[in-house]
Design goal:
Length: about 325
């Protein structure tokens, strides 16, 4: 227990010395390409119960084991082992604003025998416009999910307190979307980060639910806020859709899942929202469950329609006269 009273600077120094000791043991190994530090020691605060997260890059070889739990000076190092080529390919495929982007956005190269790797990682930490749009599109599926939960527990289950819990969960998800929108990487502390630079955008959704019970009207107001946020950013949400579906071809949910790399549940609900906004039209396409099936069924499908501006509808007009309202 006496470690609890160590000075914070002493704790950080001890972690850094342990990391250096671990790295020095790897440097003579010609198979080791780099040691990359992630997590709290690279960009946040460590304390006596922290551990270290590192990625060790190695040359091309068969890897029967890809992670180790290392002890160095009584401290724990979670070491993930990855081939350099696979690591670069992973970064290339990761979305700007996604989990891997967030994880490596503040990573530090502690050691490498290939100095070009430092520049490569630095370039990968910059979010491209297309990556940002696709990430925001995929994150919108999560916010829609939480919105549905708020509405269900408020109107069907009639449990105001549990609906408030879903407001808090939605607020955290909204905070990460806010970060992506503001060209910042998502974070486990997304709410606190948004509070730092835009408190007015998150305080009603975070502080109010944390301070005590919300009224029914306050929960509805939160739900309206989330929907307005999606509507305000409809151009960004629909960008990956228009790029993929501008040819006017009908796409089944299965085809959309394959293209966007998410679940059918998520795809359906975000496209349902896009239909409401006039971006896509919904229809069915006849399919067979298996190649040998004789009976056919109808799978939900969507087709790109003219966008909001082409239809002559502004976001404000849609909010004042929405095609489909919530159940209040």
């Amino acid at each position: 227990m006496e470690k609890i009273f160590e000075q914070q600077s002493d704790i950080k120094l001890r972690f850094e010395q342990a990391l250096n000791s671990f790295t020095d043991k790897l440097k003579p190994d010609p198979n080791i390409v780099a040691v990359i530090l992630c997590g709290s020691l690279s960009n946040d605060t460590v304390w006596e119960k922290s551990d270290m997260d590192v990625t060790v890059l190695v040359r091309e070889m068969k890897l029967p084991i890809t992670s180790f739990c290392i002890e160095e000076d009584g401290l724990i190092i979670n070491a993930g082992i990855q081939k350099e080529f696979d690591f670069k390919r992973m970064l290339e495929r990761s979305l700007g604003g996604g989990f891997l982007y967030s994880y490596y956005s503040k990573a530090k190269v502690v050691y490498t025998n290939d100095e070009s790797l430092r520049d490569y990682i630095a370039r990968s930490q910059k979010t491209g416009a297309d990556d940002r749009a696709l990430t925001f599109f995929q994150m919108s599926t999560g916010l829609i999910y939480y919105m549905e939960k708020i509405e269900k527990w408020l109107t069907i289950k009639k449990d105001l307190l549990y609906a408030q819990l879903w407001v808090l969960k939605a607020a955290e998800h909204y905070a990460n979307m806010r970060l992506v929108l503001d060209h910042k990487p998502p974070s486990r502390e997304a709410v606190l980060k948004v509070m730092e630079y835009a408190p007015e955008r998150i305080r009603p959704l975070y502080e109010k639910p944390m301070q005590g019970p919300m009224s029914r009207e306050e929960v509805w107001d939160a739900l309206k806020f989330f929907k307005q946020f999606l509507m305000d950013n409809i151009d960004l949400i629909k960008q990956p859709v228009t790029e993929y579906m501008s040819d006017g071809e009908i796409r089944t949910v299965t085809a959309l899942v394959k293209h966007f790399g998410t679940s059918s549940h998520d795809i359906y609900h975000v496209f349902d929202f896009l239909e409401e906004m006039g971006v896509v039209g919904r229809m069915n396409e006849t399919i067979r469950i298996t190649p040998k099936s004789r009976m056919s069924v109808d799978e939900v499908a969507f087709m790109y329609m003219q966008g909001l501006r082409e239809m002559g509808n502004s976001t404000d007009e849609l909010m004042n006269n929405p095609p489909r309202e919530f159940m209040w």
